């Protein structure tokens, strides 16, 4: 399989970018890279591997993000990811949550460059697909340019050549994960400078990006742009990505085309994993991801209301999706 460049990607977001979300996003953009939620090594080693790693073939290109700090465990889990069919393994060195810190991984790993190097080398030795690192530009009061430059340089020597850089410093004490996405100032210039200093590395910029105009600007300085919550709350933002950034002349789908593709998907998922099949999958687990599809369109509020109605969701009938479609005057 020939993979597209990582010009655009959707960030790994805990509780959001599950397989249903990624299937939905793939209906809007064929080439944008999609990332799983962070999966810890412990969850894979001691838990249900299939539950964590199953995905739909249409999701390609799709990357597995791992959370962990033990080289051998990460190597084992990276190998599982490759065997399962993922196109990339990404190491989380950017999450600032207290829960992740207690596991000694995420953003706090930026203070342990030799350990990160060992982790990357172990994964690189275990798989043939790309191993990438997602990180911040600094951590707590360690926020000089030299710090992040040396971090990338050292990790690069271990075999990583793709770095996804969230252009904020991570504050590990005193700020929640949400505040860490909003309060520390964005320093895009730092990421631009990293690309200048490491021209042979793939540098992807992440943080605070909400429009195609912003993406256009950043792509003049870096190799790719990763968007996060903007892609979730306003997924139609991605509608133009294939033609704009990948030169794909295939006519984009309409919003109705996207919803028409979701109906059989939801029916199949419920037949395989719903309560009638002995599983725990609920319709809400899928419909919750598409509430922003009609953002700014006439009738968007009614669309969200229908798909959020607990009584209708409890019935578990995917026909609810068509009811929401019929409430939209523009479809």
TrEMBL record:
Residues 10-313 form the DUS-like FMN-binding domain. The keyword Membrane does not apply. PROSITE patterns: UPF0034. Keywords: Flavoprotein, FMN, NADP, Nucleotide-binding, Oxidoreductase, RNA-binding, tRNA processing, tRNA-binding. It catalyses: 5,6-dihydrouridine(20) in tRNA + NAD(+) = uridine(20) in tRNA + NADH + H(+); 5,6-dihydrouridine(20a) in tRNA + NAD(+) = uridine(20a) in tRNA + NADH + H(+); 5,6-dihydrouridine(20a) in tRNA + NADP(+) = uridine(20a) in tRNA + NADPH + H(+); 5,6-dihydrouridine(20) in tRNA + NADP(+) = uridine(20) in tRNA + NADPH + H(+). The record marks 92, 178, 181, 301, 304 as: Interacts with tRNA. The active site is at residue 95. Its EC number is 1.3.1.91. One of its GO terms (molecular function) is flavin adenine dinucleotide binding. It holds the Pfam family Dus. It comes from the Bacteria. The keyword tRNA processing applies. FMN binds at residues 12-14, 65, 134, 166, 206-208, 228-229. Signal peptide: none annotated. It is an enzyme of class 1 (oxidoreductase). Its cofactor is FMN. Belongs to the Dus family. DusA subfamily. Catalyzes the synthesis of 5,6-dihydrouridine (D), a modified base found in the D-loop of most tRNAs, via the reduction of the C5-C6 double bond in target uridines. Specifically modifies U20 and U20a in tRNAs. This is tRNA-dihydrouridine(20/20a) synthase. It comes from Oxalobacter vibrioformis.
């Amino acid at each position: 399989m020939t993979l597209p460049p990582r010009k655009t990607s959707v960030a790994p977001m805990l509780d959001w970018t599950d397989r249903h979300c990624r299937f939905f996003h793939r209906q809007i953009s064929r080439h944008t890279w999609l990332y799983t939620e962070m999966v810890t090594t412990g969850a894979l080693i001691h838990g249900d591997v299939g539950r964590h790693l199953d995905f739909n073939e249409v999701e390609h290109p799709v990357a597995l993000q791992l959370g962990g700090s033990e080289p051998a465990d990460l190597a084992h889990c990276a190998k599982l990811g490759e065997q399962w069919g993922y196109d990339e393994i990404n190491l989380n060195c950017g999450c600032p949550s207290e829960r992740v810190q207690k596991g000694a991984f995420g953003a706090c790993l930026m203070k342990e460059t030799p350990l990160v190097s060992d982790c990357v080398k172990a994964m690189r030795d275990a798989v043939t697909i790309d191993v990438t690192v997602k990180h911040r530009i600094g951590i707590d009061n360690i926020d000089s340019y030299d710090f992040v430059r040396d971090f990338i340089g050292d990790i690069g020597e271990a075999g990583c050549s793709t770095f996804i850089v969230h252009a904020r410093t991570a504050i590990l004490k005193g700020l929640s994960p949400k505040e860490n996405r909003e309060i520390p100032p964005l320093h895009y210039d730092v990421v631009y400078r990293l690309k200048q200093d490491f021209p042979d590395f793939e540098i992807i910029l992440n943080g605070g990006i909400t429009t195609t105009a912003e993406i256009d600007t950043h792509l003049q300085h870096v190799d790719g742009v990763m968007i996060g919550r903007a892609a979730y709350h306003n997924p139609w933002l991605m509608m133009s990505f294939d033609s704009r950034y990948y030169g794909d002349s295939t006519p984009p789908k309409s919003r109705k085309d996207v919803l028409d593709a979701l109906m059989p998907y939801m029916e199949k998922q419920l037949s395989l994993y719903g309560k009638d099949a002995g599983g725990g999958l609920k319709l809400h687990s899928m419909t919750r991801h598409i509430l922003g599809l009609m953002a700014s369109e006439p009738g968007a509020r009614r669309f969200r209301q229908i798909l959020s109605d607990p009584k209708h969701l409890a019935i578990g009938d995917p026909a609810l999706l068509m009811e929401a479609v019929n409430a939209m005057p523009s479809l």
